[in-house]
Amino acid sequence: MHLGIDPGLKGALALVDNSGQLLWTSALPVVTLKNGKHELDEGALKEKLLSAKGTADMLVMAHLEKVSAMPKQGVTSMFTFGCGWGMVRGLLCGLGIPYDLITPQAWQKLMLAGLPKGSELLVARRLWPGHSFIMEGCRVPHEGAVDAALIAEAGRRMWKGGGA
């Protein structure tokens, strides 16, 4: 089994089995602070990761998107994002879930195969036509869920082939 993780407040988790079947997607849990800002909910994220580990007694690997600061992003938002990314890594380690880091460029090159950036939903719907990628309370597909599924599948393909 392969767990794809698109980190961030609008990120998600996706579990793909060893044959490439998408089992589920879930938005990362977010909590609203007293000051109105948002951050990842550590306790709820831990429960989701434990659930993934329990669902997949044969969990082979988690694949976490390796992210970095981007130009023109605010210092505060990048700090919050980095804290969330570190929280995910810490929880994976603490729960004994092996993981690797996969860059956006690596998974997009493999999964989009020459299609332009922005084709992620199209590719995901071709791979998993029965999955809507619409999270509870939403009317449109969740970008984080789409990306997490593609990260999981890219990780599965790379891991099977011996890595990137």
Throw out a few tags for this protein.
164 residues, alpha/beta, Nucleotidyltransferase, domain 5, five-stranded mixed sheet, two-stranded antiparallel ribbon, 5 helices, globular
Q: What does this entry look like structurally?
A:
The protein has helices spanning 42-55, 75-94, 104-112, 120-127, 143-160; strands at residues 2-6, 12-16, 22-27, 30-32, 38-40, 61-65, 99-102. It has a single domain (2-160), classed as Nucleotidyltransferase, domain 5 (2-Layer Sandwich). The chain has a 5-stranded mixed beta sheet. Strands 4-5 form a two-stranded antiparallel ribbon. The chain has 164 residues and is α/β, with parallel strands linked by helices.
Brief digest:
The chain has 164 residues and is α/β, with parallel strands linked by helices.
